[in-house]
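Lecture notes, unit on binding sites. The following record was shown on slide 14. It pairs a sequence with pyridoxal-5'-phosphate.
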Amino acid sequence: MAKKFETPILVTKSAMPSLQHYMEYLQEIWNTRILTNNGPLHTRLEKKLEEYLKVPNVTMFTNGHLGLDCAIRALNLKGEVITTPFTFVSTTHAISMNGLKPVFCDIKMSDYTMDESKIEGLINENTCAIVPVHVYGHPCNVEKIQEIADKYHLAVIYDAAHAFGVEVDGKGIAEFGDLSMFSFHATKVFNTIEGGAVTYRNGEYKKQLNLLKNFGISGPEDIDIIGLNAKMNEFQAAMGLANLETIDEKILNRKQAYTTYLEKLAEVPGLRFVKLADNITQNYSYMPVLVEEDKFGKTRDQLFDALAEYNVFARKYFYPLISNTEAYADVDADVPVAQYVSDRILCLPLYGDMTVAEVMQICDIIREIQQK
Ligand SMILES: *Cc1c(COP(=O)(O)O)cnc(C)c1O
């Protein structure tokens, strides 16, 4: 008999430094009395992230969504944007709220990222950009996507919300595309409570992004462009600096939990996992499992409900598919693979200080549910 957890295991648990350590950073804020607007902690974190993410330019934002919004605005796009319906709705909203039309491209069964072989079929004279998502931190086919973008003169903005610290052949994932957005939300691998950043190789975007996130203000008497307020404050930056100190440890621990899941669930019929490529440095941000009823004997929803009875709270992520939501009911979509995956995917609990014992117990529970 698999044991029920006494206290609920949630799908994620936010990374936090010790209170004492966070207070050391807060003391600096009390010393400077600078709470926001490009304070010293903000500047330090931006520098450290440029190193960690291996990219020449990082601009931080109050959250990832507004970062993506400003990245799109910075490019002054008009027309249609090819994107994926298998994402968090932030991606699609950022496109739509900029007056652009999202065009949904299907995904690949192998890693759930945009199917690059289907992009060209969606391009027309109105297409201006591609906004793919590194889903669960799995890198898109960045080379092929760039080839297509070059051929048709399209911009590429990556939603890299899940991909903090991911590398392809030793290169930071932020190296690819024109701009990338990382989310530092409480639920992500690296958090600044709420927060996010836009990264880019071309330094010319820096001025525009800094204007966009601060009301378009360039000086005490100058307002150059129409902008919004999307600045990161010093308390967020403090959390980021403290969390960055332990990020490698946390990712290593996630890897151990992830590997334990794979080993313990390998023999369970009807569970499918993404095969991770060797040339990728992963961040193990999520533990997605595809539940195929014909072999598992139960649907994803049945597994989800049964897990809750053992106090294990998984998440149907991403479900529903964005193209099936009320908000995007008027956008056509021919995305059978995304539909299949969205109806069967389940993210199991995974976080930076998860123990191997917790993972083993969850795996025992899953096996018990399957055999019932
Ligand atoms: C978290 C997330 C976002 C939005 O980030 P916030 O920091 O919460 O605004 C965007 N896209 C994806 C895929 C995400 O998972």
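Take-home: The pocket of pyridoxal-5'-phosphate is lined by residues 63-65, 87-88, 90-91, 133, 159, 161-162, 183, 185, 196 (CB under 6 Å).
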